[in-house]
Amino acid sequence: MAAGTRLPPSPAAHALHGDTAAAATRSVPASLVAASLVVVGLGGGALLVWWAAAFHRANARLWMVPVGLVLLGTPLVVWLSVFASGPCDRSSSLGWRLRHFCRGS
Question: Which UniProt keywords are present, listed alphabetically (predicted)?
Answer without folding.
Answer: Membrane, Transmembrane, Transmembrane helix
